[in-house]
Amino acid sequence: MDDENPYQVKRSIPIDSNIPLDSVQQLIHEAKNPVRASRHAPVPPPTALAKKSKMLKDLRRATVWKHGTRDSQAEQMDVWFPSIHHAREDQSSYEDVSEKVIKIKKEPLDNDEAGLSSPSSDIGTLAKLPGELRNRIYRYAVVQSEPGPVKVTMPPFACALGACLHARTGYNVPALAQTCAQLRSEVLPIFLAENEGFEFDAGTVQQSCAGNWLRSLGSYADFVSGITLTVERAICRGEEFIRWTSYAFDVYVPGMEFHGGVPDRFAILQKPEAVGLVCQCALETVVKEMNRKSSATPTGVLLEELVDSEELADLVWQLKKTKAHVSHLKRCKGCSGLMFHR
Predict the structure, then answer these.
(1) Is residue 271 part of a domain?
(2) Is residue 268 part of a domain?
(3) Which of these, 237, 215, 232, 236, lies nearest to 224 by C-alpha position?
(4) H-type alpha helices, 209-309
(5) Residue 304: which residues within 8 A CB-CB, separation 6 or more?
(6) What is the CA radius of gyration of the chain?
(7) Quick one: 187 exposed, middle or buried, by C-beta within 10 A (0-12, 13-18, 19+)?
């Protein structure tokens, strides 16, 4: 008993002469292979099933499910699985409801409906009011009642860590201007032209949000009355931080009222600060180039060139990294402003 193989499974082989030898061939094979005696022999798949398995592999390797349209995916399903039918025979098939095949007959309009036209933008009862009254309503909605520019700010760590919020039009314009295209065309010019400019804080200027803000307006950026760019610099005493000081640059747009005046060309002026003015000779060069191209280039595009210029980016960087006291800084011979060397 001890010499017997424990894995060997003994099975009785029928010796009836009426039983063909082919029926017991499997038992003889298992007797010769005791390790596989308790296992079932693999069942060969049917030919039809093997063919469908190959089709399934082709289906998995196909790219139509990742990059194809909904119509192409439905058409490919009909090719690979032609035997799949709807559960209900009266249900419409894919060919009946496809946008490429369906045809709806246009019914004639009644006399009352024929006189009505459906505009692309429906502003409701506002369309029945005269334009002067609509503009007055828009001014109450989008023009600040208190004097001063519209503040364009950046939430803490918003645009610095992720996508810029100011690249979205819906984040920058009033909600009334997002109702429809017609209201946007009537509201945005009033919002941009009749407010006392737009002031960008130091965070938006440092993260280049001002350019995204202008680009999000599209062609309406030509109505901007003026912008104010604010940059900051740290004031330190030795290694001790004292406070932040800010410098503001007002950019005037030709033909637009800004700070009580209507200039005839682009100009950039710096608001006086107690710590002194910053050299803006590099920015003046950009403004001169803007005036040279103002006759052929839209105003919004020129403002984008200014806020995205290397001269402004270099000024922001120099102000950010320079911590020396103003008494240790040199002054420009041209504008007498403080100079920040590399």
Answers:
(1) yes
(2) yes
(3) 215
(4) 209-217, 281-293, 299-307
(5) 211, 214, 215, 221
(6) 39
(7) buried
- How far apart are the C-alpha atoms of 186 and 113, rounded to whole Å? 28
| Chain-centre distance for alpha carbon 340 | 37
Residues 152/198, Cβ–Cβ less than 8 Å: yes
The verdict on residue 206 lying in a domain is yes
Cβ atoms within 10 Å of 316's Cβ, excluding its own: 19
Bridge-partner residues for 10, per DSSP? none
Task: Encode burial over 36-64: b for 16+ CB neighbours within 10 A, e otherwise.
Answer: ebeeeeeeeeeeeeeeeeeeeeeeeeeee
Give one DSSP letter per residue of 136-202, joined into a string. Answer: HHHHHHHS-SSSSPEEE---TTHHHHSS-GGGSHHHHS-GGGGS-HHHHHHHHHHHHHHSS-EEE-H
Give the pLDDT confidence of 74-130 residue by residue, as tens digits: 777 777 666 655 444 555 554 454 444 444 455 554 554 444 444 455 667 777 788
In the chain, the amino acid numbered 45 is P
Whether 128 is in a domain gets the answer: no
How much is the pLDDT for 244? 79
Structural domain for 214, as ranges: 150-167+199-328
Please state whether the predicted TM-score (pTM) of the whole model is above 0.70: no
Q: What are phi and psi of 247, to 5 degrees?
A: -125, 130
Helix (H, G, I), strand (E, B), or coil: what is residue 15? coil
d(CA 21, CA 37): 19
DSSP letters spanning 101-134: T---PPPPPPHHHHT----SS--GGGGGS-HHHH
Q: Both tokens of residue 43?
A: 């069942």
CB atoms within 10 A of CB 292: 11
pLDDT confidence tier of residue 202, bands split at 50, 70 and 90:
confident
Cα distance between residue 313 and residue 206, in whole Å: 8
The count of domains in the chain is 1
Distance, in Å, from the CA atom of 102 to the CA atom of 299, rounded to the nearest integer, reads: 48
* CB 65 within 8 Å of CB 73: yes
Q: What is the predicted pLDDT for the residue at 302?
A: 92
Judge contact between 311 and 286, C-beta under 8 A. Answer: yes
